[in-house]
Amino acid sequence: MRIKDIIHHLESMAPPMLQESYDNAGLITGKPGWTCSGVLVTLDTLPQTIDEAVQRGCNMVVSHHPIVFKGLKKITGAGYVEETIIRAIKQDVAIYAIHTNLDLVHRGVNARIAEKIGLQDTRILSPKPGQLLKLTVFVTTEHREALLQALFNAGAGNIGHYAECSFTLEGTGTFKAGADAQPFIGNKHERFAGTESRVEVILPIWKKKEVLHAMRTNHPYEEVAYYLHELANTHQEVGSGMIGMLPQPEQTIDFLQRLKSVFGTPVVKHTPAVQNQVRKIAVCGGAGQFLLNDAIASGADVYITSDIKYHEFFDAVGRLLLADIGHYESEQFTIDLLTEQISIKFPNFAVLKTGLSTNPVCYTT
Ligand SMILES: [Zn+2]
Fold first, then answer.
1. What is the CATH number of the domain that holds 214?
2. How far is the CA of 285 from the centre of ligand 1 (A)?
3. Which terminal CB of the chain, N or C, has fewer other CB atoms within 10 Å?
C-alpha cells in the first residue's frame, strides 16, 4: 500500500478539482510513492497530531483542514503551522488534506451532519454550476454499443439516480481521406458517405480525461469526430450545504436541545425562534454564513452552521432560526466519514481515528 493508493481512493470520492480557489487540499508533506504504514484521521493537523501518528505507527495523516493554506517563505518553527511541517518532514509523515472538495460532494461533510440530525429527502442546498460537460461523438452503427458501454464505464451518462443515460440519432456522415490517412472505411481521395450514429452523453468535468480516453480507445476511426460542450446546468450532487426534512415536526426548543446532545456542545448560539415547531432543516459544516440567503430562499425553518458574527445574526432574525453550533462540533463526524471510506476500500489496513480533540474553542458553563 502506498500513500498514493489512499489518495487515489479518497479523490475518487471527492475530486480535488472541486476545491475552492482559496483552499489547499491535497498532499502537503511526504511523497506519493512512500509505502504507507497506517493512516491517522483528524479534523486538524497540529504538532501533537504528528507525534500521535508516529507513536501509533502511522506515517500518513489524513486531515479535513489543510495545515498550510498559503505559501510559507520561512519554516523556522515560528507558530504551530511551521512547527507541524518541521515535525512531519523530520519524521517522514505525509500530511494529506481533503477539505472543500469533501464539503461539496453529495456524500461528504454535510451528508454526515444531516444523517446525525436524522434528516430525510436530502439534497444539496446550493448546487455548483459549471461542473457538467456534454460529449457528442460520431461512430458507425455497429460500433456504437461498445463505445457507449466504454463511455458509461468511464463515468459518463449519470443523471441523478439514473445511470447509462444517452441519446443517439442516425444520419449520414461524409469524409475524404487524405494521402497520409489510414481510413477505417472508404478509399483515399474519394468522398465517402455512410450511416453514422451521433451519440450524446453527459459527464462531470472531473471525468473528462477518463471519458475521452475511453472514447479514443473504443472508437474505430483514425480521427475521432467529437465535440465537448460546457453546460449551464447545475450538477445536483455537487455544491454547498444540504437541506432535508425531519421525519415529523419537532418542537423548536426540543430540537435545539437535541442539537446540543448530537454535537456534544454545551451551548448553541441562535436567533429567536420564528415558530414553535420546525421540520425543514438546512445545514453547512464549518463557516456557512455565505449560504444564509440560500437557506432562507429554500424555505428552511432552521439553518445550522458555525462561525456566525454578531451582525450576521441580524440577517436571519424573523426569517428562520439560525443556529451556530461551533466549527469543530459541526465537522467532527468527518473523522468517522473518512475513516469508514478508507476502511471500506482497504479493510485489512490500519486506519485510526485521532484520540486528540483539536478544538481550540472551550466553553465554561
Ligand atoms: Zn472547517
1. 3.30.70.120
2. 7
3. C
Grid cell, residue 3, equals: 500513500
Give residues with Cβ within 8 angstroms of 297, minimum separation 6: none
Q: What is the pLDDT of residues 76-124, one digit of tens each?
A: 999 999 999 999 999 999 999 999 999 999 889 999 999 999 999 999 9
Amino acid at 18: L
Residues 352 and 39: beta-carbon distance below 8 Å = yes
Q: Does pTM top 0.85 for this prediction?
A: yes
Query: Would 259 be classed as within a structural domain?
Result: yes
Expressed in angstroms and rounded, the spacing between residue 332 Cα and the centre of ligand 1 is 9
Residue 17 Cα, ligand 1 centroid: separation in angstroms? Answer: 18
The single residue listed with the C-alpha cell 441580524 is: 314
* 150-155: average pLDDT: 97
Q: Work out the mean pLDDT of the chain and round it to a whole number.
A: 96
Terminal Cα-to-Cα distance of the chain (whole angstroms):
46
Answer yes or no: is 365 within a domain. Answer: no
User: H-helix or E-strand containing 13?
Assistant: helix 3-13
Ligand 1 centroid to residue 251 C-alpha, Å:
29
In sequence order, the β-bridge partners of residue 132 are: 204
